[in-house]
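Supplementary notes for students who missed Thursday's class. We covered one full example, reproduced here. Read the sequence, then the structure, then the short commentary at the end.
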Amino acid sequence: MRRLVVLRHAKSAWPDGVPDYRRPLNDRGRRDAPAVGRWLATHIEDIDLALVSPATRTRQTWELAAAHLPTVPPTTFDEQLYGEGAGSILTVLAEIPDTARTILLIGHNPDLEDVVETLTGTRPEFKTAALALLTWPGERLTTAPRSSRLLLTETIRG
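Structure (token representation):
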């Protein structure tokens, strides 16, 4: 069974004069991101690959969360995960090698809600530090509409 954990970055700050791409986490985000890591360490075994938007807030979310994992998986920072739309994210997912059984995707809204809705037919609300766990019935990950099952959604607070 293949699994995809879809995670929206933790709460970010809105400093004056800082472009969206460079916005850092705020205090709550810096508390929630480690809690995400603890949740992942407890509930998700062996993440094989992390796909992360290269924006500052997603990088910081991943760094703080990864510090709580027993093993940090290989990580790819991909520009297609930042503001390029659900289609770009689905293209990235379609290129994942079959050897990656559990994938963590960290990105932004509304793209993540769109991806989950496309894959499952259900549109969860992704607040900051919210995640969804999706599975596929077979051995292959497919990005076809309604090809996966939404097992759970969770908002993590630290």
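Commentary. The first strand starts at residue 2 and ends at 8. Helices lie at 27-43, 56-66, 86-94, 111-120. If anything here is unclear, bring it to office hours.
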